[in-house]
Design a protein that fits this description.
Layout: E1 5-11, H1 35-43, H2 45-54, E2 59-64, H3 74-94, E3 99-104, H4 110-124, E4 129-132, H5 146-155, E5 159-162, H6 168-175, H7 182-189, H8 194-208, H9 211-214, E6 220-222, H10 233-240, H11 251-258, E7 259-262, H12 269-279, E8 284-285, H13 298-305, H14 310-325
Parallel strand pairs: 1-2, 2-3, 3-4, 4-5, 5-6, 6-7, 7-8
Helix pairs in contact: 3-4, 4-5, 6-7
Protein name: 4-oxalomesaconate hydratase
Organism: Secundilactobacillus silagincola
GO molecular function: carboxy-lyase activity; hydrolase activity
């Protein structure tokens, strides 16, 4: 059976171990109706290991789900990030063949975030970083965030761009309707559609800013089969090519060279086929989005039964992740 490494798997620090997170505007619980079960896995690495053993998952690359909005003040944001990363680093040290990790960063304070990324990688053995959503409604191509990406490129570790919560006002204006329930509108505006689109826009901002011309070694990871972007690469090339972008190459060339996409538990063959066709087998990774999704036997079985060659299966299942995150 193919070795399985999943790379978008989440945890939360126990509420008693950390200062409270900043108040979030959204009233929608992304944990869904099974929030109690999700919480058990989020807060227990022992239960996580039991799940992995049961469903033939060899390793998880684990990350916190809090995103950049950890606290209002710089001091609290840095303290919370360090506590989260210290816990993650200790679990990696206890189980080095079962866990890798992505650092939580105080993104609203970019210089501090760059320093924490370096500490997490060089002192704690963490394998990269995750950034969720916008930073105080700012996209990450703005100049103040450049030190974070510069540090990642210097350390040769990837940054995983994860969706974040869409503002309540945006959800209500664009996705609520009298013709269906507010709950349906919220799901469309979050995991069903919109937060994936917003994260794809984040990626477009970064590529069009020329970040890969400045940092050709930088590597970014995008979940959910690329958050819509791979579906429009040829279209993006056509229309960005109609005007002066000041880029050295086509949009698609940067994307295929510097970006990796993961399944994030969306185990559907048409999307896998498109990702492989657009990205090639060296830039596709496996992921479950645990514990928000618990695909159980499907995590290993879908990949094992997919109509792909064994060498491609090995790349997607573990080899690409081992190389990108330096898991060996």
């Amino acid at each position: 059976m193919t070795k399985i490494i999943t790379v978008e798997e989440h945890f939360e620090i126990d509420p008693g171990q950390s200062a409270p997170k900043a108040k979030q505007e959204s009233k929608v619980d992304p944990k869904g109706p099974q929030a109690n079960i999700v919480d058990q896995y989020l807060h227990s690495f022992d239960k996580r290991l039991e799940y992995m053993d049961k469903y033939n998952i060899d390793m998880q690359v684990v990350s916190n789900t809090g995103g950049p909005m950890l606290a209002g003040s710089k001091e609290q944001a840095v303290t919370n990030s360090r506590q989260i990363n210290d816990l993650l680093g200790s679990e990696i040290k206890k189980h080095p063949t079962r866990f890798g990790g992505l650092a939580t960063l105080p993104v609203n304070y970019p210089e501090a975030a760059a320093e924490e990324l370096e500490r997490a990688v060089t002192q704690l053995g963490i394998n990269g970083a995750i950034i969720g959503g916008l930073a105080n409604d700012h996209f990450l191509d703005e100049p103040q965030y450049f030190p974070i990406f510069e540090t990642a490129a210097k350390l040769d570790v990837p940054i995983y761009l994860h969706p974040g919560m869409v503002r309540e006002s945006e959800r209500k204006m664009l996705y609520h309707s009298p013709s269906y329930s507010d709950q349906v509108g919220d799901m469309i505006a979050l995991a069903g559609w919109v937060w994936h689109m917003e994260q794809g826009i984040q990626m477009m901002h970064l590529i069009l800013s020329g970040i890969f011309d400045k940092l050709p070694n930088l590597k970014l990871v995008s979940g959910h089969w690329g958050e819509f972007v791979p579906y429009f690469l040829e279209r993006l090339d056509e229309f960005t090519g109609m005007t002066e972008t000041h880029l050295d190459r086509k949009f698609s060339e940067y994307y295929r060279n510097n970006v990796y996409v993961t399944a994030s538990g969306m185990f559907t063959q048409p999307q896998m086929d498109l990702a492989l066709a657009e990205m090639g087998p060296d830039h596709v990774l496996w992921a479950e989005d645990f514990p928000y999704l618990r695909r159980e036997n499907q995590v290993a079985d879908f990949l094992e039964q997919a109509p792909i060659t064994q060498d491609v299966r090995e790349k997607i299942g573990h080899e690409n992740s081992e190389k990108l995150f330096k898991l060996n």
